UniProtKB/TrEMBL annotation:
Bilayer topology: Multi-pass membrane protein
Signal peptide: none
Ion transport in keyword set: yes
InterPro entries xref list: Gram-neg_bact_OMP, Gram_neg_porin_domain, Porin_dom_sf, Porin_Neis
Cellular component per GO, a single term: cell outer membrane
Subunit structure: Homotrimer.
Sample GO molecular function, one term: porin activity
Source organism of the structure: Paraburkholderia tagetis
Database matches in CDD domains: gram_neg_porins
Identification of the protein by name: Porin
Keywords of the record: Cell outer membrane, Ion transport, Membrane, Porin, Signal, Transmembrane, Transmembrane beta strand, Transport
Localisation per UniProt entry: Cell outer membrane
């Protein structure tokens, strides 16, 4: 039996992580200036285990267990979750693709997200579109009970599909998610598009299944609503030291109950909301160690409930410079400005709210962050 053991049977397990911490100044959080020590302003702070076992014939078992945490106080980034950032296992074949099961990032974030400033370290979470409405920030939304398929890359093209179960008896569609996406790369150019739908995220208005696919218990639901549909596309190109990108996303949210503020929890908001995000971004690599980047997002909205109709819009500007001491350690300085107008009175929609911060008491908010980041 020992002689019969296949020579190709190999396995590996890797411990990895990233710590992002720094200082943040904001001019208005609930009417007051604020200096704070904060973490995960650009990227999520995580540690994890990932591994693979060769099963032969081009097939291998793969897994990942990842926990996000807050470096300023050591608490879990996703409250109550042991491996809140990712927890999945699957099979990967070099010719047929990868099938995985567990708590995972959605397919829209996987392929369209890398074309935005908000998912990349040269912009990050603080540069997210208003209310993180399209799930494109640095992996802040993680979906439970997910079956995902990722195709192999074929002539620069790849595709993904997912279905996330509600896991509720008698409520198959109560807090589920599904979507698909595709990308294409050719030389310096990258294109991607996708669609994502969330049904009764966070359990919806009646809170019938708050811990389903998109959980309100750990803050994964950016909106608690009957239905949220997201679609969009983006492209970027590298021209020597300069990379430029354009991204459009459309979010339609129906039967809302509340919206999440990372600095203030869930804030009541009823009715329907439509948002179109138009982002232009650029990154210039001055030296291999030093880069500067910028992004501008115009978000055009339409809101209505039983009492009013309004057409709010947001202007969000991000500037950042980053210097790498090594391949694993860097420091960055980033500023974000956001202004909203046209929102209904006495509504959270009228309060500027830069992602990761508490809402402003006015239509404008400015934040400046300096951070230290280390990967291992």
């Amino acid at each position: 039996m020992a002689m019969a053991t296949p020579a190709h049977a190999q396995s590996s397990v890797t411990l990895y992580g990233l710590i992002d911490a720094g200082l943040v100044y904001s001019n208005n959080q609930g009417g007051r200036h604020n200096w704070q020590q904060s973490g995960s302003v650009t990227q999520n702070t995580v540690f994890g285990l990932k591994g693979a076992e060769d099963l032969g014939g081009g097939l291998q078992m793969v897994f990942k267990l990842e926990q996000g945490f807050n470096p300023n106080n050591g608490t879990a980034a996703f409250a109550g979750d042991g491996f809140g950032s990712q927890a999945w296992v699957g099979l990967e074949h070099r010719e047929y693709g990868t099938l995985t099961f567990g708590r995972q990032f959605d397919v829209f974030n996987d392929l369209v997200g890398p074309l935005t400033a908000e998912l990349n370290p040269w912009g990050g979470s603080i540069a997210a579109h208003p209310f993180e409405n399209d799930n494109l920030a640095a992996n802040s939304v993680v979906i439970n009970n997910t079956v995902k398929y990722v195709s192999p890359v074929y002539h620069g093209m790849t595709a993904e599909g997912m279905y996330s179960f509600s896991n509720r008896a008698g409520g198959f569609g109560d807090n589920r998610a599904y979507g698909f996406s595709a990308s294409y790369s050719a030389g310096p150019f990258n294109l991607a598009a996708g669609y994502l739908q969330l049904n009764n995220a966070g359990g919806g208005i009646a809170a019938t299944n708050p811990g389903g696919a998109v959980s309100v218990n750990d803050g994964s639901a950016n909106f608690v609503a009957g239905r949220q549909r997201i679609w969009g596309a983006g492209a970027n190109g590298a021209f020597g030291p300069v990379t430029v990108g354009l991204v459009w996303s459309h979010t339609q949210i129906d039967d809302m109950a509340s919206v999440l503020s990372l600095g203030a929890g869930y804030i009541p908001l009823d009715g329907t909301l439509r948002l179109d995000n138009y982002e232009a971004n650029v990154r210039y690599t001055i030296t291999p160690a030093w880069s500067v980047s910028a992004a501008y997002t115009y978000t055009d909205g339409a809101y209505g409930n039983a009492a009013s109709v309004a057409y709010p819009s947001w202007n969000t500007v991000m500037l950042q410079t980053d210097y790498g001491f090594s391949k694993r350690t860097d420091v960055d300085l980033e500023g974000v400005y956001q202004h909203v107008r046209g929102a209904p009175p006495n509504s959270v929609l009228g309060q500027a709210m830069i992602n990761t911060l508490a809402p402003s008491s006015t239509h404008t908010q400015v934040a400046v962050a300096v951070g230290l980041r280390h990967a291992f």
